[in-house]
Amino acid sequence: MAATGATLGSSCSFTTRISLRWVPEPPEETTDTVVLGVGEWFLDLRMDKKTGEIDWAMAGTRVEENPNETPGLRPLFSTIPSWERMNKY
After folding, report:
1. Phi, psi torsion values for 52, nearest 5 degrees
2. What is the separation of C-alpha 87 from the centre of its chain, rounded to a whole number of angstroms?
3. Residue 41 contacts by C-beta under 8 Å, 6 or more apart in sequence?
4. Which position among 7, 31, 45, 50 has the lowest Cβ density within 10 Å, counted as fewest Cβ atoms?
5. Neighbours of 8 (CB within 10 A)
6. Is the confidence at residue 4, as pLDDT, over 50?
7. Rounded to 5 degrees, what angle do the CA atoms 61, 39, 70 make?
8. What are phi and psi of 41, to 5 degrees?
9. pLDDT tens digit string along 13-37?
10. DSSP codes of every residue in the chain
């Protein structure tokens, strides 16, 4: 993900996506995308630029099942208590 961002101390970060490219198409960005991270917690919010509606929203924690194992991490998903309230829109 092409990104710009700033680290706000040792455990906080803010990132915004510039564009996304699916080869062979040119880069584009249809959402205003921000990711906030505090410690192991994150919030990924993507707002559709045309409609202003939520395109994607996810919050959670980063979990490493085997920190010494490479490659990559497998995501662990869980429902947050307010999701049902947010999802009605």
Report:
1. 80, 5
2. 17
3. 59, 60, 61
4. 50
5. 12
6. no
7. 65
8. -90, 150
9. 888 888 888 889 999 999 999 999 8
10. --EEEEE-SSSEEEEEE--B--TTSPPB--EEEEEEEETTEEEEEEEETTT-SEEEEEEEE---SSTT--S---------TTHHHHHT-
53's tokens:
């509606």
Phi-psi region of 84 (alpha: psi -120 to 50; beta: other; left: phi over 0): alpha
pTM (two decimals): 0.57
**Could you give the CA distance from residue 84 to residue 81 in angstroms, rounded to a whole number?**
7
Domain-by-domain residue ranges, the chain? 3-64+74-87
Higher-confidence residue of 89 and 53: namely 53
